[in-house]
Amino acid sequence: MKVVYKFIQVILRIYLPIFFKKIVVRGIENVPTSKPVIFAVNHQNTFMDGILVALKLKKPVFFLTRSDVFKGSLFLKISKRLNLIPIFRKQDGFDDIAQKNKGTFSFCIEELEKGSNVLIFPEGVSEPVHHLFELKKGVARLALEAESKNNFQLDLHVVPVAINYENHFVGGSKVFINYTSPIPISSYQQLCKESESKARNKLLLEIKNRLKSNMIHIEGDYTVFRASHWKKIIQKADSDHEIIKALEALNYEKKIPLKTEGFNWKKEKYRYNQSSSYINKLLAFVICLPGFVAFLPTVFLTRGIVWFVKDESFYLSVVAVSWLFFGLIQFLFCLLYAWNYFDANIVLLLVVCLPFFAFLSLRNFQRVVARD
User: Fold this and answer.
1) Which residues pair with 293 in a beta bridge?
2) Residue 85's CB: how many other CB atoms inside 10 A?
3) Cα 35 from Cα 31, distance rounded (Å)
4) How many domains does the structure of the chain reveal?
């Protein structure tokens, strides 16, 4: 299991810094390396969120994953190799989720007792918008149950992780991963003895505050906000911290519930990228062209797959994995074909040129498709 996990992690460590324009990781030095950890992560891009959090961690991570994706014996085998654990939710059509999740929680506690890392998305939903939804109590319940079972001697810590995407739908943009300071669950021992519900609520509030203070968090009418403010902010800001400061300085309705009606992600996914001049777009097109031509089958296969994506929160993750999977297959096929029909110099040329063309295309295609 560890061999497969580590192999995929190495591949992704090479690939994702190319797929994204920039991956900024902060606070990873805060993560305890010799103690069990629960990562509480905001959830905006389905399995891409978990991949990004685990990307540079030395210890493997167990991921709590929505149970409706565990279909078929093949996927069950794959999921075990990738440390995926099913979590049951009402919105997936399951009744009596507390009973169904007992086995999941027991497994997680056993792994935490071994010193493992567990990742959970406390919002319980994945929505590709800059907003923190209300947290479910599962993360607090799991942390306190694990410590209580071990008389608060487990030395378990919860690390809230805030992920901020510059653009939720396309590669070639920036993503920021903020590991906040760990919360020692042993500090809740006395309160837990007095009232478990109060301990859960306080821990949940602490996690929420850590996440919210490090997140790009938009409230009110999301569509109106994006149309009125986002482009101006994104053109001036170089980091998520600058975006957060800009949001704090804006005078808009911040205390009303989030509304996303009218937000058409398929039409607007490129609209708010940093704008480029027509000359820059033409230059980017010329740079990207060799890679698009060389990997045309991968491009068309990916477009065919994402055409079936109805849940927008899966879009970026599916594109990233599809490009990687089919791109590697096509690359190996080209090398095998060249090896059989051409001399070693041609093979060596392909080994150098194909990855280089792919790199240029991944890094520059967003400039081609950006809209004002």
Assistant:
1) none
2) 21
3) 9
4) 3
- Which CATH number is 142's domain given? 3.40.1130.10
H-state helical runs in 251-314: 265-268, 278-294, 296-306
* Same-domain check for residues 133 and 248: no
Same domain, 129 and 244: no
* Co-location of 147 and 202 in the same domain: yes
H-type alpha helices, 214-264 = 222-225, 231-236, 240-249
* Distance between CA atoms of residues 56 and 62, nearest Å: 14
Express each pLDDT in 35-87 by its tens digit: 999 999 999 999 999 999 999 999 999 999 887 666 666 666 777 778 888 88
Across the chain, mean pLDDT equals 89
Q: Are 43 and 215 spatial neighbours (Cβ–Cβ below 8 Å)?
A: no
Residue 273 falls within a domain, yes or no?
no
Residue 57 Cα distances to 3, 34, 49, 329, angstroms? 15, 12, 14, 27
230, 130 in Cβ contact below 8 A?
no
Q: Is 299 helix (H, G, I), strand (E, B) or coil?
A: helix
Q: Find how far residue 186's CA is from the centre of its chain.
A: 29
Residue from 289, 309, 275, 365 nearest 18 by CA: 365
Q: Are 50 and 202 in contact (CB under 8 A)?
A: no
Out of 204, 238, 268, pick the residue that ends a domain: 268
Q: What is the pLDDT of residues 311-345, one digit of tens each?
A: 888 999 999 999 999 999 999 999 999 999 999 99
Does residue 77 lie in a domain region?
yes
Cross-strand pairs, 23: 175
And the tokens for 43?
């959830």
pLDDT, tens digit, 9 for 90 and up, residues 262-276: 787 777 776 655 556
Same domain membership, residue 61 and residue 30: yes
Q: Percent of the chain having pLDDT more than 70?
A: 90
pTM score > 0.70 for this model?
A: yes
**371 has a pLDDT exceeding 60:** no
Q: What is the pLDDT of residue 172?
A: 82
Q: Which residue, 168, 192, 213, sits at the end of a domain?
A: 213
Tell which wins on pLDDT, 254 or 208: 208
Cα–Cα distance, 66 to 88 (Å, whole number) = 6
